[in-house]
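[Structure tokenization] protein backbone as discrete codes
[Encoding] learned vocabulary of local backbone shapes
[Protein] chain in single-letter code, fold in tokens
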Amino acid sequence: MGTRLFPIGLAIALSGLAVAFGFGWGSGLLEQWQLAARYTARVGLPLFLITYCASSLARLWPGDGARAILRHRRQWGLSFALTHSVHLMALALYNAVAGTMPSATTLIGGGGAYALLYAMALTSNDASVRALGPWWKRLHTLGIHWLWFIFAFSYAGRIGDPARRAEGLLFFGLCIAALALRVAAQIKRKRG
């Protein structure tokens, strides 16, 4: 598989494994879908963070590896969209099996994140960049930061729960580190 298609292949493999582990470790359909939703979110986060940090990595450490990630940022973003589509399906099936409805806050915050995610995925092509002009950058900037906020907020909320504190600290810490990396790259860019 070519370098350009590697992120998509990785996303397919990780999503499949996450669902398989959910079904392998869950006892009963409800827990299986709950775990599948949890694991697909976890495998999606690194793909998101690669996309979120691609330009910052290239600015701060302009080596071959960082340039390759930046060159294929579109594919990394689409791979995240793929894993998070599987996550959305697993979450919807969990709620259907549980007979529950997500809260209004979840629907607004998460629904907004998915609307932006799909808008970004649909416009991740050169024709859209040309057609949308400066609105393309605005859409993608808003979307990437909204998604970052949803991840950070979700994992920060786990820190107060002793059973999920380690998960919250690890993944919230990764989100904060990614934001710090972007801030450092912005500072370097402004200093010229």
User: Anything to note?
Assistant: The mean pLDDT is 96. Helices lie at 6-25, 29-60, 64-71, 73-98, 104-122, 126-132, 134-158, 165-191. The CA atoms of residues 152 and 172 lie 5 Å apart.
